[in-house]
Amino acid sequence: MSLVDALQWRYAAKRMNGKKVDASKIESLLYAIQLSASGFGLQPYHILVIENEDLKAKIQPAAFNQPQIVESSHLLVFAAWNEVTAEKIDAFIQLVSKTRNVDLADLKAYKDAISGALLSRSVEDQVKWMDKQVYLAMGTALAAAAKLEIDSTPMEGFKPTEVDAILNLKEKGLHAVLMMAVGERDEVSDFMVNAKKVRWPKEELFVHIV
């Protein structure tokens, strides 16, 4: 299935049947998310991959009792850092040096660019920037899930502070931004399963400037 066909196939599943997604597909999905674009390549977030049924049940009330939380195979919680620090930038530059076999001295300009752009901001502005990076990762996740024929539901509809408390995210220096339920659509219970996809016509959506 081509990417376009996969995107035609996907929709935000309203009900899932509880079946487990094959582990190899989950690994491919997570690898795709790992490869997602982000500002400076910094990826200022972590993704919690939750299979534990009791934990999903605790999260469900904080997500307005959406059934996909507990019907999913896996629940992904996209959690951004609470702050960008010099130490985190240092760790990232060390990773770049090791991965690309580049001397740290040759990465000084890159490090200074990241530090200048991010450490000069207030923590509040840093968080706004980091939350946007999470949305980039979610976009990659949705497209990858579709290509793998894994049903998914992106979720903004939850109480972040409650999810943070359930998952002890504050202690981890994180805060929940988005969640994504992945599994298999319930073709009997999901009222949206046969609904046609509604999108603005391309003539209205795209503005060509030549």
From TrEMBL:
Keywords: Flavoprotein, FMN, NADP, Oxidoreductase. Its cofactor is FMN. InterPro entries: NfsB-like, Nitroreductase, Nitroreductase-like. Residues 8-183 form the Nitroreductase domain. The keyword Oxidoreductase applies. It holds the Pfam family Nitroreductase. It comes from the Bacteria. Belongs to the nitroreductase family. PANTHER family: NAD(P)H NITROREDUCTASE YDGI-RELATED, NITROREDUCTASE. This is NAD(P)H-dependent oxidoreductase. It comes from Aquirufa ecclesiirivi.
